[in-house]
Amino acid sequence: MRLGDHVVVLTGASSGIGRATAEAFAGKGCAVVLAARREEALEATARECETYRGARTLAVPTDMTDAKAVEDLARRAVEEFGRIDVWVNNAAVNAFGRFEDVPLEDFRRVLDVNVMGYVHGARAALPVMRAQGRGTLVNISSIVGAVAQPYSHPYSMSRHAVQGFGSSLRQQLRVEGVKGVRVCTVIPATIDTPHFEQSANYTGRKVVAMPPVYSPERVAKAVVDLVRHPHREVVVGPAGRALVRRARKNPAPAERVMAKQTDRTHLSHDETAPTTHGTLHVPAPGEGAVHGGWGGRRRTALRRTAVVAVLGAGAAAAGRRISREMAA
Predict the structure, then answer these.
(1) What is the pLDDT of residue 1?
(2) Catalytic option among 151, 155, 202, 214
(3) First and final CA of the chain: distance in angstroms?
(4) CA dihedral angle for residue 289, residue 295, residue 300, residue 301, rounded to 10 degrees
(5) pLDDT at 298
(6) Mean pLDDT over all residues of the chain?
(7) Which pLDDT does position 315 carry in this prediction?
(8) How far apart are CA 135 and CA 118, in angstroms?
(9) Angle at CA of residue 172, ends 170 and 178, nearest 5°
(10) pLDDT at 53 over 80
(11) Which SS3 state, helix, strand or coil, does residue 190 take?
(12) Percentage of residues in the chain with pLDDT exceeding 70?
């Protein structure tokens, strides 16, 4: 099936990774069904996909903690476009704070959105995909699903749960002999999105993006590539891949590194922050945005330039060495 003929449902499509991924699929000619709590931001995403990429769109304001609303999302996608080829579970929230300081209602809300929201999405999408005989379910996790962090206990728990959930679903499909339906997990490193400023915060310190920071477009490309070539899990960002390898080989040192880096670079030592519920219970106003202002795209470009320069210097040195050997 040609990629441009796919119907793609994306949750958390109002900003960040979800919005970048919607635009990426729209750019390939796919029909995109956009879901999030913020109607104004969803409409802005839909306009972007339609005006600049010529895509067919459907915006459905949805709270992923409401199972009935998620079922309605799937139903409307099928009514509008006839099927669901790709479902991307992406909607997520976060709460930062010492374990004892995060209110229990906020702790539960993070788990409800980040875990049960994905459960609701899978329960809505998989029956449609089974009936079709094909489909790809993509769960967006995080590097903290491989190496947990201090100060974001519910988020770390939820991301570990997402990776376990994906593994369990894959095993069930295998046991049942379902061959055309794939379940993939994407594990991004730190991504330049509005996520950090929208998180609940009980630390008294400003939350900043922990370097190195990558662009959301990089994650979007990984998701699109998974539809073409499905894999169990894909880590986005070289730093993330290195940390995952280290965690699997030597988990204790990886935990120490993450703890140190989180305290040193994820929470500001210079800027304070007021106590806030963030967007846990009420979505942010406005039209939303893909980027969070952390320079992910620029930093990615600079890293690529540096790598090319190093490779170029290495190639030049090798060329000179070969020339000397030939002359000798």
Answers:
(1) 75
(2) 155
(3) 57
(4) 100
(5) 55
(6) 92
(7) 40
(8) 16
(9) 80
(10) yes
(11) coil
(12) 90
**Given strand 31-36, what is the order of strands in its sheet?**
57-61, 31-36, 7-11, 86-89, 135-140, 181-188, 233-236
Q: What amino acid is encoded at 54 in this protein?
A: G
**Tokens 């080989």 belong to residue:** 249
What mean pLDDT comes out for the span 315-326? 42
95: helix, coil or strand? strand
Give the pLDDT band (50/70/90) at residue 107.
very high
Preceding peptide of 285 cis, ω within 30°: no
If DSSP codes are grouped into helix, strand and coil, which group holds residue 291?
coil
What percent of the chain is predicted at pLDDT more than 90?
Answer: 89
Other Cβ atoms within 10 Å of 240 Cβ, number: 21
User: CA-to-CA distance for 211 and 43, rounded, in angstroms?
Assistant: 32
Contact (Cβ atoms closer than 8 angstroms) between residue 107 and residue 153: yes
Q: Which residues contact 194 (CB under 8 A, 6 or more apart)?
A: 15, 16, 284, 288, 289, 291, 292
155 is catalytic: yes
